[in-house]
Design brief:
Layout: H1 14-27, E1 33-34, H2 46-57, H3 70-84, E2 93-96, H4 100-110, E3 116-121, H5 126-133, E4 137-142, H6 153-159, E5 164-170, H7 182-195, E6 198-202, E7 227-232, E8 245-248, H8 251-262, H9 270-281, H10 285-306, E9 321-322, H11 333-344, E10 346-347, E11 349-350, E12 362-365, H12 370-385
Parallel strand pairs: 1-10, 3-4, 3-5, 5-6, 6-7
Antiparallel strand pairs: 2-8, 7-8, 9-12, 11-12
Helix pairs in contact: 2-9, 3-9, 4-5, 4-8, 10-12, 11-12
The structure holds pyridoxal-5'-phosphate.
Residues 38, 98-100, 124, 170, 174, 202, 204, 232, 234, 240, 245 line the site of pyridoxal-5'-phosphate.
């Protein structure tokens, strides 16, 4: 069968592949502890789920406006105003089925053949995949353990050329759990304005922060007009399956993204959006309790990993991933991850699924119970002693 050549530019997401392999082992009767997939193991808060169900019962099951329901766009603009300290109007908000389409649409709207987009490596694998798909050139910006998994401004400067159109940021970061500092953001803002490029700020983990405060580049002087904020409900409100996310951007860009949506999804599910309004405007008790539980697990997983001979792990500042160094074993991280799946019954990812600079590390999601995390660490310890 022949397919269009552009498809060869797309990569997949390692987490979904690893999940499939783990499920295949489970089908053979093996017990697997899942630390591979990045989804909260909590239920959607009941009042949010009820709002979705009530919307279905009330017949909110038809097409809605392409960029999102006015109620939700308004709630998002107000929420971002409260949490980022920068004012947005509903016309600057686009609601999408999950946050991922914002990555796709923004890159499709901004990157043409030969245009360069700088992205964090290791990083979410969709960034460079979609840049290539759009005919652009992805430029990897290394995040190194020595710099607490942040990039240096000198490394960023060295990658900027007259073709640089876009810089992608992700803080708190998947897979490293690192966060950009206010000084980093100031340096980025200066470069973005000097060299006239856009910034796509993936803030999907902005509420899952353990140390310090979250800051968005959009809040800096001169940055709102060149920043796209990506956020959504998947992580903060444990709503991965509802498929609800959004982007905030200058109105002129929002109009182009609306055109891309008309040509693809038409609109986001209407009843899902009512659940989103309830999530943003209602009590935050469940979301906050979830974050506190992640904080306790973070300690468990980081202390546990550091107790395994040959493994070292930094304390992530946000998100729900640990990114331990396994270089001492002298094997690729994928070999270590495969061994752990088969020998320890623990599913995790090799860091190279997040880019070349992720080699030598594993990504473990701690969106699993404390009991399972403790069990996973014990099983890893026993298996790695024989590796
Ligand atoms: N951005 C990052 C960094 C992510 O880790 C994810 C999900 O794993 C997304 C975006 C996409 O989120 P959603 O499930 O809302 O599409």
């Amino acid at each position: 069968m022949e397919f269009a050549t552009r498809l060869s530019q797309l990569n997949t997401e390692g987490a979904f592949e690893a999940l499939t392999r783990a499920r295949a082992l489970e089908a053979q009767g093996r017990q697997i502890i899942h630390l591979e997939i990045g989804e909260p193991d909590f239920e959607t808060p009941p009042h949010v789920a009820e709002a979705g169900i009530a919307a279905i019962r009330a017949g909110k099951t038809h097409y809605g406006p392409t960029p999102g329901l006015p109620e939700l766009r308004e709630a998002i603009a107000a929420y971002i105003g409260r949490t980022r300290g920068v004012a947005y109007s509903p016309a600057e908000v686009i609601v999408t089925p999950g946050a991922k389409p914002i990555i796709f649409y923004v890159i499709m709207a901004l990157i043409g053949p030969g245009d360069e987009a700088i992205y964090p490596d290791p990083g979410f694998p969709i960034y460079d995949s979609v840049v290539k798909f759009a005919g652009g050139v992805p430029i990897a910006l290394p995040l190194t353990e020595e710099q607490d998994f942040r990039f240096s401004l000198d490394d960023l400067k060295a990658r900027i050329t007259p073709r640089t159109k876009l810089l992608i940021l992700n803080s708190p970061h998947n897979p490293c759990g690192s966060m950009l500092t206010p000084a980093d953001l100031m340096g980025i803002a200066e470069l973005a304005q000097k060299h006239n490029f856009w910034v796509l700020s993936d803030e999907i983990y902005s509420r899952i922060v353990y140390e310090g405060e979250f800051h968005s580049p959009a809040a800096l002087v001169g940055m709102k007009e060149r920043t796209i904020i990506l956020d959504g409900f998947s992580k903060t409100y444990a709503m991965t399956g509802w498929r609800l996310g959004y982007g905030l951007m200058p109105e002129a860009l929002a109009e182009q993204i609306t055109l891309l949506m008309v040509n693809t999804t038409s609109c986001t599910a209407t009843f899902t959006q009512y659940a989103g309004v309830a999530a943003l405007n209602g009590p935050q008790t469940e979301a906050e309790a979830m974050i506190e539980e992640f904080r306790a697990r973070r300690k468990l997983v980081v202390d546990g990993l550091n107790s395994i001979p040959g493994v070292t792990c930094r304390n992530p500042a946000g998100a729900f991933y640990a990114f331990p160094n396994v270089k001492s074993f002298g094997r690729t991280a994928k070999t270590v991850a495969d061994y752990l799946l088969n020998e320890a019954g623990v599913a995790c990812l090799g860091g190279a699924s997040f880019g070349q600079y992720g080699e030598g590390y594993l990504r473990l999601s701690y969106a699993n119970s404390r009991e399972n995390i403790e069990k996973a660490i014990e099983q890893m310890k026993v298996a790695l002693a024989k590796f």
